[in-house]
Amino acid sequence: MSKQDLELVSVTKRYGTTIAVDAINYRFKADSYTCLLGPSGCGKSSTLRMIAGHESISEGSIVLDGRDISDLPPAQRGTAMMFQNYALFPHLSVLDNVAFSLKMKSVDTAKRHTQAREMLDLVDLTSLADRLPDQLSGGQQQRVALARALITRPRALLLDEPLSALDPFLRIRMRTELRNLQKELGISFIHVTHGQDEALALADEIIVMNNAVIEQSGSARDVFNAPQTRFVAQFMGGHNVIALPSGHFAIRADAVSVTEPSKGSIEGNVTAIEYQGTHVSLSARITGDQDILALIPDGEFFANPHHPGDQIGLHWDATDQHKLTA
Ligand code: ADP
Ligand code: MG
Questions:
Q1: CATH number for the 240-323 domain, one of 2.40.50.100, 2.60.40.650, 3.40.50.300, 2.60.120.380?
Q2: Are 158 and 170 contacting, i.e. CB atoms less than 8 angstroms apart?
Q3: Per-residue pLDDT at 264
Q4: What is the pLDDT of residues 174-189, one digit of tens each?
Q5: CA of 213 to the centre of ligand 1 (A)
C-alpha cells in the first residue's frame, strides 16, 4: 500500500440490530475526487462519519497514510468534515469561524488570523471576513464552511451532501468550484451524494452503495458505461434493463434508435414522449411489462416525430447490449 492511501478494511457499522455498513473494503485513490453514491439509507453517511471519527466502527479498520486511524479522535486523523448544514457559529465573524479550530489548538490570534485569511483567499471570500454568517448567502456560507474545514490542512476532506441546500443554479456553480479546489489542493475529497448527475460531474472515482454494501466502484465513465448489476444500471439512469432468456442486459437509452416498424426491428408501442431540450425521451412498450427508453437528439426526433399510440421499430447494435451479473 502506498503511503497516501486511505483504506477501508472490512468496515462494518451496526446500530443495534441494523447493519448500516456491511464489511466494506475499499482503497481510495490518492489525491482524487471520490463520490459515495447511493439511495437514501444505504450507508453513505455512516461510512463517511466512521472515516471522520464522528461514529465508532463496529468491526474492521480504517487506515490513512499507513497508520490505523480507527480509534483516533477526529482532530488527530488527518481528515476534516464539512457538514450538510454548514454548522457555522452565528455569533462569530467569518474570519473567526474559519480560525476556530486553530483557537481550539491555542494558536495565537495573529497567527490564526493570518492562516484564516489565506483560507478565505482560497475560497474568494477575503472581502467578507468581518461579516457574521447570517449576513451571507447560502453559497457564501458554504465557502466559509469549506475554508473552516481546510484550515486544519487535512489529507482528506469529507463532504456529506454538501450541495443539497443550494438552489440548482448555485449547485452547479459550486460543484465546479469544489472540483477545481480539489485539483488545486491536491488532496482527496470524499463526497457523499444521492444524485447520479452530481457524482458523474464531479468524481474521478464513484463508489455505488446499496443496502450497506458496495455494489460497484470505478471511474465515473466506467460505472456509467458498464454498469454490472441491474441496480447500478437503473440507479445511474439513462439505461434500459431488459430480461432475455440468457439473462439481464443493459443498453444505453441513447444507443436505441427509432424507425417505422420494419423487418429486423423490435416492435413497440409509444407510451410517452418527453421533451428534454437537447433530447427527446421516448418510451415504448415492447412486451407485456417491458418498456424501452430511447433518447433521441431533438433535431432527429422533430424531423420525424412520433406520438403516444404509434407503432414503431426499435433498434440497437448488439455491441451496445451488455450482460449484467445480477
Ligand atoms: P445514507 O447516508 O446513505 O442515507 P445512513 O448511513 O445515514 O445512510 O444510514 C444507514 C442506515 O443506518 C439506515 O437504515 C439508517 O436508518 C440507519 N442509521 C443511521 N444512523 C443511525 C443512528 N444514529 N441510529 C440508528 N440507526 C441509524
Ligand atoms: Mg446521509
A1: 2.40.50.100
A2: no
A3: 84
A4: 899 999 999 999 999 9
A5: 13
